[in-house]
Design a protein that fits this description.
single chain, alpha/beta, Aldehyde Dehydrogenase, Chain A, domain 1, Aldehyde Dehydrogenase, Chain A, domain 2, 2 domains, 38% helix
């Protein structure tokens, strides 16, 4: 084990022990006996080993979840009992917040300071928020066309056994986004964590048992997408699959789910515009636009990767964002001075650097950044600002998922024209509009085809706010009341009186 920064003896011991899968309430090795290495992205060195799930383990976990759903106590508990267990789980995570933040920083590369104030608190809040919803999932009575002859009402029931596949950019938080609403509705779950970042998801599974979740209700598998993920998406005894990740893989999930027509929700990629109108407050825009793309190393599905600035203030805004980028300190996540960590993996490093090269080859100009690497072999890429970009370039059309922003001037004054340019993408996950004129900003927000539009801010999240995309950014919504639709069936009951 080779880690860039010192960690506690307890955590060293935790990482030195090969981590197991959680199936039917027990920590077990993979059926094959295989394990895979987990890498510290700040050094590229192995820091842990985790049991490698494949189709056989998926089948075991699905059987356990099916047994827990059909005959176990979880779906039959009172909603208040389920809510109390979810609240207890939130308390346990909060008590272990430093361990979770450190594991998240080690696993993903993000600064420990960010994990402490964002990833872990938002995870705790998500479980508490959904604990409250457990008692508020209700049906309605419906007056039909035969008054006095029939009583008709609806029930909302758990969809059943759910397969959930989460990404590596916010490993703990994405687990919470998936698990909390599924559990609040009474579903049972097989959760497949990303092979790049399995540690916090597996630790969360352990706390699920400690919180009192019955055996088989939550099963946590670590493995590769091509094996464990594909087997989970295609499994005939899964009632619904929920996936967060790239649009390309989302399309594969849909095809795999077609066998038994399982329900599917997808939270996919984005190419989100940051639209800066000529009357915007430049002092507010510059840090806001920089944060929109450089937060979490740009590895956000809603990253503001297209910076669209009115031509009157284009040069000032680009210069300001470039200055912010130039002063971001890169380093290992556990270094208290680090403001941006490494990318998550060697694969992601190759992807992002390949896009930067492609942009330059197609005529883009690097204002700042573009350089890579570090003295200790980590997957570091400097925050990068590109100008002289055009809508036909790969860097503008495709999701980079790294700290790279493409800046382009807005030359039109008409809101419809600006919206058409912003909407000129296959994605529709998020956007932000920056203007002192709130009326104009909100008129433009209505014209942007995206699931989330921020006004004079970016990357603002709350458990109560729905999140999801238009077009090829996905199906359905995460968080808020709307996510309950993902995990419930509506049944109409009519009784003759």
């Amino acid at each position: 084990m080779n880690i860039a920064q010192p960690i506690s003896a307890d955590l060293q011991s935790y990482l030195a022990t090969s981590r197991k899968l959680l199936i039917n309430g027990e920590l077990v090795d993979a059926v094959s006996g295989k394990s895979f290495p987990v890498y510290d992205p700040s050094t590229g060195q192995v820091m842990a080993h985790v049991a490698e799930a494949d189709a056989a383990d998926v089948d075991k976990a699905v059987k356990a979840a099916r047994k827990a759903f059909e005959g176990g106590p979880w779906p039959r508990m009172t909603p208040s009992e389920r809510g109390r267990i979810l609240w207890k789980l939130a308390d346990l995570i909060e008590r272990q917040s430093e361990q979770f933040a450190t594991l998240e920083s080690l696993d993903n590369g993000k600064p420990l300071s960010v994990a402490r104030v964002a990833d872990v608190p938002l995870t705790v809040d998500m479980f508490r928020y959904m604990a409250g919803w457990a008692t508020k999932i209700t049906g309605t009575t419906i007056p039909i066309s035969f008054p006095g002859e029939y009583l008709s009402f609806t029930l909302r029931e758990p969809v059943g056994v759910v397969g959930q596949i989460i990404p590596w950019n916010f490993p703990l938080l994405m687990a919470a986004w998936k698990l909390a609403p599924a559990l609040a509705t009474g579903c049972t779950v097989v959760l497949k964590v990303a092979e790049q970042t399995p540690l916090t998801g597996l630790r969360l599974g352990e706390l699920c048992q400690e919180a009192g979740l019955p055996e088989g209700v939550v099963n946590v598998l670590a493995g590769y997408g091509e094996t464990a993920g594909a087997a989970l998406a295609a499994h005939e005894d899964i009632d619904k699959v929920a996936f967060t990740g790239s649009t390309e893989v989302g399309k594969l999930i849909v095809k795999a789910a077609a066998g038994n027509l399982k329900k599917v929700t997808l939270e996919l990629g984005g190419k989100s515009p940051v639209i800066v109108l000529d009357d915007a407050d430049i002092e507010q825009v510059i840090p806001g636009a920089a944060g929109a793309i450089f937060f979490n190393h740009g590895q956000c599905c809603c990253a503001g990767s297209r910076l669209m600035v009115h031509k009157k203030i284009f040069d000032k805004v680009v210069a300001g964002v470039a200055d912010q980028a130039e002063h971001i300190k890169l380093g290992p996540g556990l270094d208290p001075l680090t403001q941006m960590g490494p990318l998550v993996s060697a694969e992601q490093f190759r992807r992002v650097t390949g896009y930067i090269r492609s942009g330059v080859e197609e005529g883009a100009e690097v204002v700042v950044g573009g350089k890579t690497g570090s003295d200790n072999g980590g997957y570091f890429v400097q925050p990068t600002v590109l100008t002289k970009t055009s809508p036909t370039m790969k860097v503008v059309r495709e999701e980079i998922f790294g700290p790279v922003v493409c800046a382009q001037p807005i030359t039109d004054e008409d809101l419809e024209a600006i919206a058409r340019e912003a909407n000129n993408t296959t994605y529709g996950l998020a956007a932000s509009v920056w203007s002192r004129d709130i009326s104009k900003a909100n008129k433009l927000a209505k014209r942007v085809r995206a699931g989330t539009v921020w006004v004079n801010c970016h990357n603002v999240f709350d458990a109560s706010l729905p999140f999801g995309g238009y077009k090829q950014s996905g199906w359905g919504r995460e968080m808020g009341e709307f996510v309950l639709n993902n995990y419930t069936e509506v049944k109409a009951v009519t009784t003759a009186l």
